Amino acid sequence: MSDTQSTVASAVTPAADLRSQKWFAATGRGALAHRGMLRSLGLGPDATEGRPIIGIGHSASELSPCNAHLGRLAESVAKGVWQAGGVPLIFPTMSLGEGLMRPTAMLFRNLMAMEIEETLRANPIDGTVLLSSCDKTTPAMLMALASVDMPGMLITGGPKLNGKYRGSDLGSGTALWHFEQDLHAGRMTQREVDEADFCLNRSDGHCMTMGTASTMAVIVEVLGMQLSGFSSLPAADKRRYALAHTAGHRVVDLVRADVRPSEIMTRDAFENAVRVNAAVGGSTNAVVHLLAIAGRVGVDFGLDDFDALSREIPLLADVAPSGRFLMEDFCYAGGLPALINVLGDALHTRSCTVSGRTIGEDVAGAEVWDNRVIRSLSDPCQPAGSGTAVLRGNLCPAGAIIKQSAATPGLLVHRGRALVFESPESYHAVVDDLDADETTVIVLRNAGPVGYPGMPEVANVPVPRKLLMRGVTDIVRISDGRMSGTGFGTVVVHVAPEAAIGGPLALVQTGDNVELDVPKRSLRLDVSDEELDRRRSSLHLAPVRDGNGGGYTWLYRKHVLQADTGADFDFLRGSRGDAVGRESH
Questions:
Q1: Could you tell me if residue 377 is inside a domain?
Q2: Can you tell me the mean pLDDT for 326-347?
């Protein structure tokens, strides 16, 4: 594979050209007011005399427990900024936690990205370090930074320590789905489930499986927007604070050299991200987030690129939900730097990173210390082509995806009778008594961006209890919603266009035969085109249940794009730059 290297500016930006000097070096009452605001923070005159102002944004919140420790991490960044001659200004951002927010944190990803973009643009900030943790905070921050294209980087908060229960390791989310199955099948009591659930959360940090939070941390690092080694270090590991200090120092260098995210997040960087996502068995949510980020930074990158690039890469990380180990184990086995070295020439190793070096230089010398956790190309966990697959067919003309590494191999080619549900609530109301067999295909619709709203993680609905009692642990499920990155099973997600706007999923009737053929990348409804046209002509879309009276949900439904282009807002795609606005006084 041919390598390309981004051209990174090497000249030092003169102090007079810093954005912040438009505020602090001006004359008149406006400049007096601006300088006075920093005096109220206890900063002397030299704070505004040509020193880069670094905004340190973090999503710490007790409403998002996975992010709760980020304020402490921000203090380490600030120390590094001071040491490098910059002036750190810490600010809070909106915080999104998948565990508590309803109807879904995904509804607010675009809002968070918009808030951060405008915060960076509206203030005297020359560069930024953004600190994220839970699933949607990381892509929201990267989308914002791409749109403002200001020198900066991300720091992710790190995974929790491994859960421990009765001598076994437990992984966030993945273990919960197993508990749910075991409870329904009578293999666990409610008291045992409650005890095990309590043992999952032993420290600060995000999910310690290769769920969406860990996947996005890995992706930010391989995109070049996070310092090497950050993504897998546990949140409780003090080395994370040392790296945060280094990040604070480094961002001042990025400002002085005027290195922009658009110079780092190139087409090659996105290709690297997709290939690494396949190698680690990353979340299906990485697809929708990477598409949105590419749309912001202006890289031509589409859904079919995921399929083409993933086909070449085997699964190398034996990490749940696709494997046996957890992120703490992945870290101690060598982490992402070691895995990148294993992939070698499969990646564009000359792509540049926020370190000022290429990604190949960043990971030089990194070794695999436990080849049970990080496997070799000659002994992978699963062969090449076992990652995320993009499906096409009359059920998903704009695409759908499935995570093969977490699916049951025997169901990847399947034909079965559809059992259709209009909502997850209607499914959960009958799941204990549902008349289904192992060939049944569950169709769950109206869970897309517009229909729910927000495209929640409801697609991996539980297997009916009657089947669990018979030892059947997986059936095919199809939805226009998403599933948790910690989830597993033969679940087709992100069906586009969604049912709520008249997509073909709205035409499926209980009893129709559905054909899934993942090797052929096909998902079809075995109904004639004439019959589908007849159904379409008589289709009456149900009105959305809320959000029609105004407010953010109304804005979301009016402007959100479909999953195949990242579910971003149509008016937010592209970069709007960091131009300084008009005087405020």
A1: no
A2: 97
| Residue positions counted in the chain | 585
Give the Cα-Cα-Cα angle 343, 349, 353 (nearest 5 degrees). 120
Phi-psi region for residue 30, left (φ > 0), alpha (ψ -120 to 50) or beta? Answer: alpha
C-alpha dihedral sign at 114, 119, 122, 124:
negative
Say if 246 falls within a structural domain.
yes
> With 90 as the cut, is the pLDDT of residue 185 above it?
no
Residue type (1 letter), 198: F
Average pLDDT over residues 363-378: 97
Mean local confidence (pLDDT), 531-540:
95
**Within-domain flag for 47:** yes
Instruction: Quick: pLDDT tens for 470-513.
Output: 999 999 999 999 999 888 999 999 999 999 999 999 999 999 99
pLDDT of residue 3: 43
Cα(440)–Cα(430) distance, integer angstroms: 15
Which of helix, strand or coil describes residue 22? helix
Do strands 476-479 and 491-496 pair parallel, antiparallel, or not at all (unpaired)?
parallel
Q: Pick from 235, 261, 287: which residue ends a domain?
A: 261
Classify residue 46 as exposed, middle or buried by CB count within 10 Å of its CB (0-12, 13-18, 19+): exposed
Give the closest residue to 544 by CA, choosing from 452, 455, 426.
452
SS3 566: coil
What does DSSP say about strands 441-444 and 413-421: parallel, antiparallel, or unpaired?
A: parallel
pLDDT at 34: 87
* Spatial CA neighbour of 92 closest among 110, 109, 68: 68
- Number of Cβ within a 10 Å radius of residue 99: 15
Best CA proximity match to 568, nearest among 151, 171, 288: 288
Percent of the residues in the chain that have a pLDDT greater than 90, as a whole number:
82
Which of helix, strand or coil describes residue 111?
helix
How high is the pLDDT of residue 567? Answer: 98
Q: What is the DSSP letter of 358?
A: B
Q: How far from each other are the two terminal CA atoms of the chain, in whole angstroms?
A: 55
- CATH number of the structural domain spanning residue 220: 3.40.50
- Which domain covers residue 32, as residue numbers? 15-261
pLDDT band at 11 (very low <50, low <70, confident <90, very high): low
Q: What is the pTM of this model?
A: 0.94
| Phi-psi category of residue 443: left, alpha or beta, with phi > 0 → left and psi -120 to 50 → alpha | beta
CATH assignment of the domain containing 486? 3.50.30.80
Residue 108 main-chain phi, psi, to 5 deg: -105, 5
Query: How are the residues of the chain apportioned to helix, strand and coil, as percentages rounded to the nearest 5?
Result: 40, 15, 45
470 lies in some domain: yes
Nearest to 322 by CA among 173, 424, 540, 521: 173
Q: What pLDDT is attached to residue 14?
A: 79
pLDDT interval class at 454 (50, 70, 90): very high
Number of domains in the chain: 2
Could you tell me the pLDDT band of residue 65, with boundaries at 50, 70 and 90?
A: very high
Alpha-carbon distance of 346 to 340, in angstroms, equals: 9
Three-state secondary-structure class, residue 392: strand
Please tell me the distance from the alpha carbon of residue 321 to that of residue 174, in angstroms, as a whole number. Answer: 6
